[in-house]
Design brief:
This protein is an all-alpha fold. 52% of the residues lie in helices and 2% in strands.
């Protein structure tokens, strides 16, 4: 079975086959991907996938309302939690982004309504042949990044935003030789 080149080992294979590039509209899952993509900054995605269960436990199964209320004591505990990336900036970012996420939900009804508006609520279907053809950011991810930052989010640069777009299916970047690529 041909897959995108990056999906050559577990847990990447399962993630590729079952989640990556598939449109996601559930706010809890969108929050999860926002936090995981921010945690991934400077690291490989497989590093985060291997810790995904640890992140789910550490961050209250990505219950945004609970994470938004994390205090200094909870953050200190997270900094000692070996099942996640113990980076103070990334952990503080997750709590901050939870607070901003709730504000976006209040303004737009759902985070889904907000985030998908950047692609007019329709996935972008790309036609790349190989992994090296994929961009690391686009004009849309740059626009999204600027707007998220304006709203107080952090760890949301254009590259992170593009990875988020790929993860939640706003953009379908399965390469043309991949079994999940559909014309």
């Amino acid at each position: 079975m041909n897959r995108c080149d990056w999906a050559s080992e577990e847990p990447n294979i399962s993630y590729h086959d079952k989640e990556w590039g598939r449109p996601e509209h559930n706010d809890q899952k969108l929050f999860e991907f926002l936090i995981l993509e921010g945690a991934q900054a400077g690291l490989s995605w497989i590093t985060i996938l291997k810790r995904r269960d640890g992140y789910r436990k550490a961050f209250s199964n990505f219950d945004v309302k609970k994470v938004a209320k994390y205090n200094k004591n909870q953050i200190t505990k997270l900094l000692k939690n070996e099942s996640i990336i113990r980076n103070r900036l990334k952990i503080n970012s997750a709590v901050n982004n939870a607070k901003q996420f709730l504000k976006v939900q209040q303004e737009f009804g759902t985070f889904d309504e907000y985030i998908w508006s950047f692609v007019n609520n329709k996935p972008i279907k790309n036609k790349y042949k190989k992994l090296s053809d994929l961009p690391t950011s686009t004009l849309i991810s740059e626009t999204m990044s600027k707007d998220l930052k304006k709203r107080g989010f952090n760890f949301v640069g254009p590259t992170i935003c593009y990875a988020l777009m790929q993860a939640i299916g706003m953009v379908n970047d399965h390469t043309s030789r991949c079994f999940l690529y559909k014309k």
